[in-house]
Design goal:
Elements (H helix, E strand, L loop, with lengths): L2 E7 L3 H10 L7 E4 L4 H5 L25 H8 L9 H15 L8 E7 L2 E6 L4 E9 L21 E3 L13 E5 L3 H12 L3 E6 L6 E2 L7 H5 L1 H7 L10 H5 L2 H4 L4 H12 L3 E2 L11 E3 L3 E7 L2 E6 L4 E4 L1 E4 L15 H6 L2 E2 L2 E2 L12 E3 L5 H4 L9 H18 L1
Parallel strand pairs: 1-2, 1-5, 5-18, 6-15, 7-8, 7-15, 8-11, 9-10
Antiparallel strand pairs: 3-4, 4-5, 12-13, 13-14, 16-17
Helix pairs in contact: 1-4, 1-13
Length: about 400
Amino acid sequence: MSACDLTIIGAGPYGLSAAAHLRAIKGMEVRVFGEPMSFWSGSMPAGMFLRSNWTATKIASPNDDLTLEAFQAEEKRSFGTPVPIEQFIQYGLWFQRRAIPDLDHRRIAQLERGTKGFRITVQDGEVFDSRRVVIAAGIGPFTRWPPEFKSLPSAFVTHTSEHSEFASFCGKQVLVVGSGQSSLESAALLHECGAQVQVIGRSRQIHWLQGWASTTLHHRMGKSVRKLLYAPTDVGPAGISQLLARPHLLKCVPRGIQNKLRRRATRPAAARWLVDRLRDVPISLGCTVVSAAPIQDRARVSLSDGREITAEHIILGTGFHIDISKYDFLNADLMERIKRVNGFPMLNKDLETSIPGLHIVGAPAAYCFGPLLQFVSGTHFASRTLLRAVRNARRSA
């Protein structure tokens, strides 16, 4: 049976960045599996823009040379902020070609304990051992479905992450549930595609983000003040942003305060550049869905304020709930051995689970290291932490 030093499961921004860094370790064999940028290309509709600023949108590379600017120059592309999703996907694919040209596109079928660390089974039946594993498998399995919608047939209700385009909804009545970026941008795209769309959300108001490009408060602050209050990682409000940009420091903060900071930084919010695009879209706030049921060729939704709405289709912008047990490649015995809290893995300072040699990066690491790990800008912290941890482990072996 073959063996390697380290295997990375996943080829999104976190997997690609981790691979680029770990392959810098001399003499280390790193295998990387996954379809590159698959969640971004298959679960985000065409026409979307990234909410993050320019510095927070680049994927971390060891020498900081695989930047958006380098991609633009080499590929002769021109775009600014907000960055179009299509350009970011192409940037990710370019990053992969430059840093991991031998990426294995096959899916991992099973990860389990082995005699040399871990045993990995690939979808076509290949089996090999790996001394260390990094899971960077993303959030695809973690879609949040409110119980009120679980009885509706799939023909009537989908999650925002199930759509790569909205052209098929032209002329249809569509109800979007949620008041965050994904739901509101989906509503704008649906409206622009010719759908008759309306939005409902339980928040009493929409939190519009000022953004670095704003001409209001951020502009009046001046560049030096902005740098003092807002970290380049672009996660969290003024002041708090600097703490969230330092996950190891945040990890020392009492859990109750961490939870409050995480909720504050990740509450439903939307980019201010959506305001004009939603001007003609009806939005009802401060109400929740009580029940939903199919009525002939439509779905009928009853709201907490007593109203009823019928729509040909409902799209849920209800986010994600992390639960790593939903990673279908994790062997049951392995899963049992991973210490968890509400679905999140408990990780040490090296992003390592309670099973030595098994690391998890991306959104599942947010409980231990804060909301930075839910965003592309978190690839810098995650990859450098992994690089340091693996180098130290090799020295002490």
